[in-house]
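Quick one: structure tokens for this chain, please?
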Amino acid sequence: MQTHKLINFGSKILMNKKIKSHRIDSEVILAHILKVSREKLLISEKHVGERDIFRFKSMISRRSCEEPVAYIIEKKEFRSKDFFVDKKSLVPRPETELLIDPIIDIFKKKNLFFLDIGVGTGCIMFSILKELNHSKGIGIDICKKTIVNAKINLKKLKILNRSKLFCRPVEQITNQKFDLIVSNPPYVVKRDINRLSNDVKRFEPRRALDGGKDGLDVIKKVIYKSLDILKFNGILALEIGRGQYFFVSKILKHYGFREYRTVKDYNNNVRCIFSTLIKKKLK
């Protein structure tokens, strides 16, 4: 079967299952199987063998059950790099990329030592390390299986000498002072998780989504702990959820942080807050 016919075949199956991204998903899956870029797949027609057709149909079947494409092909692009991902880690989002450029801009002429809380696939940590050659980082996560995934990406991106990964909660980080603390913590309000799309709520790790009753449980922990482990005038970079800016800004101000910069996402919501510790208040 020719590539365009196979793409149409997969797209039709997914469309019938009401998958909105049916065409793109079919193209991405076939490009993965044939080990070519999606762009090359679309401009160069070729014959697909029976073995690859079988794999394609199997993956399309998984996608028709709303499993995320990233888990099916076990990779997700983040800042032009492919990161290994499976069901042990949250799928990296385009919005999370908004954290990176301000960090690069702030620390491009400095020797940066930073902490990534909730490292996940490692996409934030490893993007910083790759783009700031004089940086060193520590990544932590409470899930052992997630750390395994991060280590795969660490090795793949060849930055073992400038990074360390640990399975531990932020409360156990002591005797360290960081120039930067960055975190994309769980921030979905617990009662809202069941309102998320099926591909998220049925397949992605709940503990990486659940921010507690008000969505701020982990964010509060990160801010509180930063008082002890962030250098004076150091930067705290947080990704937050929709509608959380007012509450997070109030918490930061209470603990002596000054807002340095905010970044809005593609829906005009404040998605990232960068703040600096200017005066440490009593806990």
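Strands lie at 76-78, 81-83, 113-117, 136-141, 163-167, 178-183, 230-239, 257-264, 270-277.
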